[in-house]
Structure formats: structure tokens, C-alpha cells
Amino acid sequence: MTIQPGRLFRIACIVLVSILFFLPVWWVTVSALRPQEEIFKYLSPLSLWTLWPRDASLIYMIELWQGPFATAILNSIYITVVTLVVGLIISAMAGFALAVMNFRFRETIFFVIVVSFLIPFDAIALPLFGILSKANLQNTYTGLILPGIGNGLAVFLFRQFFMGIPKEIREAAQIDGMGWFGIFWRIYLPLSRPAIISAGLILFVFQWQAYLWPLIIAPAPEYKVAAIAIAQFADLYGVNYSLIFSAAFFISLIPMLVLVVFQRYFTASVASTSGKG
Amino acid sequence: MTRSRKMMILFMFLGPTLAAVILLRLWPASMAVLESLYAPRAQTMSLENYAYIFGDPLFQKSILVTLIYSIIVNPLQIAIALALALLLNVSIPLIGLWRTLILLPVAIPQSVSAVVWGIGLRPDGPVNGLLVALGLGEQRFLTSPDQALGSIILIVSWIGIGYWMTFLLAGLQDIPKSLYEAIRIDGANRWQQFRYITLPQLRRTLTFVLVANTVSNFLVFAPVQILTQGGPQGSTNLIMNDIYTRGFVWGDSSSASAATVVLVSLVLLVVVMQFRLMRAPEDNAA
């Protein structure tokens, strides 16, 4: 195979652009490993040490976990896991009812669910704050978790997927005397791994990224989530940049790993559901 | 199965989601509308709050900033995302890796990106280090009224471009190869191939990306709140920041509600447009 100059140029462009996009991530990683005083040291003039830690050390990452950040990231993990489990179950159940059960106004209810979730959450966070604070849900895990569990796109994904499962399977189960819960739990859910992964990614990203909502509903330190904690780091540590970068590294690492592992499901499903609406 | 038992089962399946719809979207949305119609200390409904915010120079400026921002950020992100999608729509070694590197920033929470870029754009930060190395002068970025909005655009674009690129790439890969072969036989050059095959075939994906991108850019909040709080001199006071400031910093929930209704209407308008545009002349090429 001969390599044409045009193709070579294209490859060079691709590699260059990718590296440019990745550079800030790399800088965070390197800075998380280096002491305070070195973070701004090699920037002007630029040198090899700008992008490689001279005295790499894990002490900042370890120190980080001994401070309030540990609480914040554990809160984030806890909230996200609960959101995922509860959100997946309720969206799958709703998707199941809308796909396989017969009842009046089925299409109308489906339409209302999808359309209401088109109201962007952040835009109505303030009135929702008014409602949930009257219910005494300020500074509670429930208050933090609630907005993440209902997601119209997740319901939509499950409904689409369940409609594709042949109804003969369900009819056979019904003849064997299986009820709706059995059919849902023992037949439909085990078959729907791709839908679970795509819906799970959507719920995960929403909750892990949440900023405005945790900022207003849970100002108490013991309920702080990681995305808020990092923004307020300067006050806590008197601007210790090594710790800020270590925190940025940990908060980003988890979703990056998730994204790398499940990427193909994510793009495929979102593109085929909303892109072709 | 009795009718009531059937209703019970149905309710157990649908109930939690319906409760979420009502509690988390419909109720707060109607609260916002209702509250926006009552001026502070007023007994009857009126449009006073709307008259107040639209007459408020701060709100006027925030609408203006949001419009300027939208007019720049949306075409910019989509043009770059499309260019990158075209560039990366090729099979070369490690193509998955290169695509992932560009997509990766999406995974990072916006608040983290904001903090990191805030440090990166400091006067003694790496971006200025790079500019100096290239022989360009140091810039003030977030502290200059002329550059702060541009800096926010840089940050949200770094986060978003890979995401939108991924949709466009998926759209490009759905275009049948035979269409290109046919037009090439007719002697079309690269530009004509792009103009007469790629663009029309990509219309639905592009429309989706344009509208979804516009919606998400209307809602940008974390970078503004963390880095500039709307300043310097109101130059980055995007609408979400304005609403937050009214509601939580000043405790003026009446005008915050009115501004919220304005924002939600804007966003829903964009979403409705999306459905309209996407349903337009259905798939001409089979």
C-alpha cells in the first residue's frame, strides 16, 4: 500500500487535534502529581517539564482523601449509585407499561411524560427548590437524589427497546401463569442490557455533573458533592493548587473510565433515538 | 383479572415516573408561571414582574449578552464539530483512540472544567505561557470585559465540541457509500460531493445538533458562576446567572420567576423548532 501525501497530512491533523483536546486533561494529571510551587514554574518559558512532572509524588492525592473532599466524593458516588438504581428501575417499569400493557390514554400519557421532560431541569431548579424546601428536603440525600431519578429520555429508550421484544415470548409466559412483574423482572429486564447501559449512562452523567441543584438544595458541608466541593476549594485550603488538581483528577477519572468503556453504546443509542427524532 | 387489580398493577408500573413528571417538572414549571404573575405585595395577577425585568437594564444586558453568546458559540461549535467529524471519518490506525481523546472532555463535570480552565487562563497560567512562546502577547482573559465572554466560549467549546462531533460522525457513517460513487461517476469534485450528498444527507443530524446545542448553551451556568459571576462589568452575565443572582443572591423570587418563564419559553420554542425542522421534507433519498 502506498501512502499518499494527502492521507499523511490528514493523519497528522487528526493526531494534532486529538492531542490539543487532550492536553488540558494531561496538564491536570501532571499537576496533580507535582508540588504547589512547581505548578506555575515551568510555564514561561515553556519547557519539557511543563508537561512532565519533575518530582512526581502521590502525596497530594493521599492528602486530599484525608480532608473534606473524601466526604464530597463519597457523597457523589452514593448519590449517583442510588440515582442509577432507582432511576433505572422506575424508567424501565414505565417503559414496560407504555410498551406492552394495554390501557386507555396510553399514547397521551407517553406524550406527556416525554414532553414534560423537555422542560430543562436547570431552568426550573429555582421553583423546585421552593417546593422541596417546604417539604424539608434541604440538606438531605433525598433532596439531592430526586431530580436525577426521573428522566424522559430513559423512559423513551426503554419503551423503544421493549417494543422490539416479540410478544410471543410474553404470551408464552402468560400461558405458564406468569404475572406482569414476573414478565418484567425475569424476561424483559434480562434481555435489555443495551437499553440499561444507555439509560444508565444518561442518568449517570446527569447526576455526576449536577452543579446548580446541589449548590442550592444542600449547602451543608456534610452533604457537599464533589462538583461543588472543587469549586469551593480555594476557601477550604487557601488555594492549594496541588490539591485542586488532585481533586479535579479524581472527579474526572470516574466518568472518563465509564465513558471509555461504554462509549459505543452511548453514541449509538443517543444518535438513533434523538438524532432521528 | 379484575379491573381494579389491573389498575393497581398499572399504577405500580407507571406511578413513580408520573409522580416524578408532576413533582419535578410540571409543578415547578407552573409555580414559576404563577409566581411570575404576582408582583411583590400585589394582590392580583399582573404582568408587572415582566414589565419590571424587561425595563431593568441588568436584565436587558443579560439578554443581549446571551444573544451575542448564542450567535457566536452555536455556529462556532457546530462548524468545528462538523469539520472534525469530516476529518475523523476515515479509517486510520488507532482512529477510536483519537476520537475518544476529543470526546473525553465531555465526561468531566463542567464545574471541574471551569476550575481547571480558570487556573489555565490565569495571567501566569499555561495558556499565556503558550502565547508568549508563540511570540504573542499575554492576555487578561477572564478579568477583561472584552475577553471574558470569549474565554467562557473557549471553555464550553472545549467541553462540547467532541460531544457534538460524535453525533455528526454517526450521521456521516449512516450515509450510503453508493451515493458518493454515483456522483463521482458524474464527475463531481470534493466540494460538489459535500454540497450535494453530505449536507443534504446530514440534514436531520445537523438540525438535531444545532437545536440541542442551542438549548444546552442557553443553560450554561457553572463556568460563569465559578469564574466570573457575570462580570467583569456584566460582560458574562448569561441568563442562567442572572436568574440565579436574582433568586438566590438578591432573594427577589418574583423577578427570578419571570426570568425563568422567559428562559423556559425560549428553550421550548427552540425544541419545537427542532421537531418542525426535522419533520420537514422527509427523507427525499431512499
UniProtKB/TrEMBL annotation, chain A:
Instruction: Tell me which Pfam families the record gives.
Output: BPD_transp_1
Q: Determine the domain of life of the protein's source.
A: Bacteria
Stretches assigned to the ABC transmembrane type-1 domain: 73-262
Q: Where are the transmembrane segments?
A: 7-27, 77-101, 108-132, 144-162, 183-206, 243-262
- Which SUPFAM superfamilies does this chain map to? MetI-like (SSF161098)
Indicate where this protein resides in the cell.
Answer: Cell membrane
Topologically, how does it sit relative to the membrane? Multi-pass membrane protein
Q: Where is the signal peptide?
A: none
- Family of this protein: Belongs to the binding-protein-dependent transport system permease family.
Tell me the protein's name.
Answer: Carbohydrate ABC transporter permease
Q: What is the originating organism of this protein?
A: Hoeflea algicola
Per the UniProt record, the lineage of the source organism begins with: Bacteria, Pseudomonadati, Pseudomonadota, Alphaproteobacteria, Hyphomicrobiales
Automatic annotation (TrEMBL), chain B:
Parts forming coiled coils: none
Q: How does it sit in the membrane?
A: Multi-pass membrane protein
> Which CDD domains does this entry report, sorted A to Z?
TM_PBP2
Q: Which UniProt keywords apply?
A: Cell membrane, Membrane, Transmembrane, Transmembrane helix, Transport
Compartmental location: Cell membrane
**Where do transmembrane segments lie in this chain?**
67-88, 100-120, 148-170, 205-228, 248-272
**Identification of the protein by name:** Sugar ABC transporter permease
